[in-house]
Design a protein that fits this description.
370 residues; alpha/beta; Isopropylmalate Dehydrogenase; Rossmann fold; 2 domains; ten-stranded mixed sheet; 11 helices; globular; binds 3-isopropylmalic acid; binds magnesium ion
């Protein structure tokens, strides 16, 4: 009997719907090839949900319950100029993304920063520094730290307005994200860099203590500590010397954008936000989305790179559905399409003009490789 999985599909805004359509074509293809099916519950999120609810919410209750009844969430992207003037709490990013992360306890954000050897020309890093490209995995803590710490607020003190946030971490929160990072390092190059600001922040002192403690359970992994400012510099000078990087929420927000920029194209990078492991299995509940965002400037033109969304499907298959062979097949087919020279605008150079393709053709090239 063929296996069945349930997924929630939230395409969102901007290029979200168009790259999602293509990612689902790839999912159809691997389902046929590897003999499983997905039941897809398609729901609104972000600006699309605001439009449909008369600006009531970017995250309707039906959307949350569809996610609750699924094995994993395939997410597109949210946001755009149309909704930027709404009150901050209901703007697509803050009103949908952050509550989804919190509601589902998606504490582990895996953001690969990969620059394939054949795409180093798209990276702003001097090409002689990255002759073979690079492949770094950023593991970002996603439900703690200054994003969610309390107190958080704004008030009058001594006749002027002050505003404040709290960067707070529990030992258990640091411990669990470090274990995800060490486990990821075990499956890769066995090198982990823990990023903190232990020369200034109390939460970072605890972070470093816990990192050293957890390291004892992973003796094969080489652990190094970097202050976040130094990490930001080393990433653009020698990105190919990193394997896995682990850090707290805000540092990870910033460093993962730096990694995405130096890798050359946001259109190539998927991400996973993982919650707890499902009972009795090594699969996680998770949400999978491109790193790039809704790109309203190119939406609706059929030119967006679908690879980030397609590789997000691969991560969903691997971490939440246990369809590892299908995940590997998608990753191999995406690499093969690049190797064959297919280029969307974001990764094309002048010399590639004749190989330039749109969203659909890039997906067709990937499908051909399956
Ligand atoms: C990200 C984004 C979000 C974050 C914003 C949109 C809330 O920048 O996913 O990195 O800061 O986490
Ligand atoms: Mg960010």
């Amino acid at each position: 009997m063929s296996r069945t999985h349930r997924i929630a599909v939230l395409a969102g805004d901007g290029i979200g719907p168009e790259v999602m359509t293509d990612a689902l074509r790839v999912l159809d293809a691997v389902e046929a090839k590897f003999d499983f099916t997905t039941e897809r519950n398609v729901q609104l999120v972000g600006g699309a949900a605001l439009d449909a609810t008369n600006n009531e919410t970017p995250l309707p209750a039906e959307t949350i319950s569809a996610c609750e009844n699924s094995d994993g969430i395939l997410f597109g992207s949210v946001g755009g100029p149309k909704w930027e003037t709404l009150p901050p709490d209901i703007q697509p990013e803050r009103g949908a993304l952050l509550p989804l992360r919190k509601h589902f306890g998606l504490f582990a954000n895996l953001r690969p920063g990969v620059c394939m050897p054949s795409l180093t020309h798209a990276s702003p890093v001097k090409n002689e520094l990255i002759p073979n490209g690079f492949d770094v995995l950023c593991v970002r803590e996603l439900t703690g730290g200054v994003y969610f710490g309390s107190p958080k607020g704004r008030e009058e003190r001594d006749g002027e307005t002050v505003a404040f946030d709290t960067m707070i971490y529990k030992r258990s929160e640091i411990d669990r994200i470090l274990r995800v990072a060490f486990t990821a390092a075990m499956g890769r190059g066995k090198r982990l860099v823990s990023v903190d600001k232990a020369n200034v922040l109390a939460s970072s002192v605890l972070w470093r203590e816990v990192a050293i403690e957890v390291a004892k359970d992973y003796p094969e992994v080489e652990l190094e500590h970097l202050y976040v400012d130094n990490a930001a510099m080393q990433l653009c000078r020698r990105p190919d010397s990193f394997d896995v990087l682990v850090t707290e929420n805000l540092f990870g927000d910033i460093l993962s954008d730096e990694m995405a920029m130096i890798s050359g194209s946001l259109g190539m990078l998927p991400s996973a936000s993982l919650g707890g492991q499902k009972e009795g299995s090594d699969l996680y509940f998770g949400m999978y989305e491109p790193s790039g965002g809704s790109a309203p400037d190119i939406a609706g033109q059929g030119i967006a790179n679908p690879i980030a969304q397609i590789l997000s499907v691969a991560m969903l298959l691997r971490f939440s559905l246990g369809e590892t062979d299908a995940a590997k097949a998608i990753e191999a087919a995406a690499s093969a399409a690049i190797d064959k020279g297919f280029r969307t605008g974001d990764i094309a150079t002048g010399a590639d003009a004749e190989k330039k393709v749109g969203t659909t053709e890039m997906t067709d090239a990937i499908l051909a490789g399956l």
